Amino acid sequence: MIGMIFMIIIVILVIYVVLSCVRIVPQAHAYVIERLGAYKGTWSVGLHFKTPFIDRVAKKVTLKEQAVDFAP
Question: Quick one: which H or E segment has residue 44?
């Protein structure tokens, strides 16, 4: 009984880790990826997979135009 509960918990954790490694970058955005704290690359629009516990999304950047008012 305890072994079965332990296996269910392990399976849930594995599913969570796998799902957290799949990222979809939306349109007009870019994600900056770091591997062990160093710049690895920039993901553009689309489906991407990261290495668990090694890669991380350091910054989510919007590529939309932004209007800025300047003093006359």
Answer: none
List of residues 6+ apart from 51 with CB closer than 8 A: 21, 35
Q: Return the SS3 of 35.
A: strand
pLDDT in tens, 17-56: 999 999 999 999 999 999 999 999 999 999 999 999 999 9
> Tokens at residue 27, please?
């349109």
What is the radius of gyration, based on Cα positions, of the chain? 19
- Does this model's pTM top 0.90? no
Q: How far apart are CA 18 and CA 64, in angstroms?
A: 30
Give the span between the Cα atoms of 47 and 54, in whole angstroms: 18
